[in-house]
Amino acid sequence: xxxxxxxxxxxxxxxxxxxxxxxxxxxxxxxxxxxxxxxxxxxxxxxxxxxxxxxxxxxxxxxxxxxxxxxxxxxxxxxxxxxxxxxxxxxxxxxxxxxxxxxxxxxxxxxxxxxxxxxxxxxxxxxxxxxxxxxxxxxxxxxxxxxxxxxxxxxxxxxxxxxxxxxxxxxxxxxxxxxxxxxxxxxxxxxxxxxxxxxxxxxxxxxxxxxxxxxxxxxxxxxxxxxxxxxxxxxxxxxxxxxxxxxxxxxxxxxxxxxxxxxxxxxxxxxxxxxxxxxxxxxxxxxxxxxxxxxxxxxxxxxxxxxxxxxxxxxxxxxxxxxxxxxxx
Length: 329
Ligand SMILES: NC(=O)c1ccc[n+]([C@@H]2O[C@H](COP(=O)([O-])OP(=O)(O)OC[C@H]3O[C@@H](n4cnc5c(N)ncnc54)[C@H](OP(=O)(O)O)[C@@H]3O)[C@@H](O)[C@H]2O)c1
Prior knowledge:
Elements: E1 2-6, H1 11-22, E2 29-33, E3 42-45, E4 48-51, H2 55-60, E5 65-68, H3 72-84, E6 88-91, E7 103-104, H4 107-110, E8 120-122, H5 126-142, E9 144-153, H6 160-170, H7 201-213, E10 220-227, E11 234-242, H8 248-256, E12 261-263, H9 275-278, E13 284-291, E14 298-305, H10 309-325
The structure holds NADP nicotinamide-adenine-dinucleotide phosphate (NAP).
């Protein structure tokens, strides 16, 4: 089938092409789209050169699926135009996530809600996906009451410009800044823009998106999002209070049995998730499981995942695969 990749030259777009190739997604014609400055340039997919086309040319080709990762403004403007010609859009930006008429999908959790009528489907925020992957099976069993999460987020989550800023600073080169401060040897408690309540937009995504994905507003989430100088994946310290009491061995078993989760939890062997191991992998890694000894029914855990893979590209491709498998496109 014809498939458009909007933002094909970016951090997420590049990984998307890799994931489509690895999973042998059935593509008859690939339409890579980027900004006007990139139109006409070439990129390689499955060993063949492909010309980057304009948004209008991609729409004229009426692809079955368009996967967007080109920023919220681009999605707001162009996703409806693809939808109008019958294309199903899977959007990686935050543009449509909290729109009540659009589904917010992590395939392992709620792909079954998708229908042929869903022409714009939102991919959740990268930090949300990895957290909700671990929380969903535990919520099913013990019912979450409150979650407190602190993130340690990779510069690859901000895009090409941020990775360049970190590399320049590591090499003592002056260049464009993606952040208001140096990121090398620093931790910046500021991901995305500040909102009126003093939280950042990233923190509010972590608070709101899981409720929509799990279709449950009975629990609350408080988040602090921090950018750190790593590039392989996001890490999260998660404290979760449940309504029901739990058994740690049972929690380990549940996570072990959950598709898409790899348990790395053995303090005897210093086994725990880290971005250098999650980098380039599709799973969400969970470890450091322990009871919070200060409060009843409360668990601490550490969650790491490659933000460009399960946090963006892999999740989007899994949605596309579901659409094909269920003949929804
Ligand atoms: N990085 C992550 O971990 C992550 C995770 C989840 C979601 N996302 C979301 O995915 C999107 C892209 O993120 P990224 O990190 O890949 O950013 P990026 O590296 O800066 O790439 C941006 C891409 O968008 C293209 N683009 C920019 N303006 C465009 C326009 N007007 N029309 C068509 N294409 C345009 C760029 O093309 P040129 O090369 O021509 O400039 C480039 O291909 C963002 O919405 C981000 O929030 C990112």
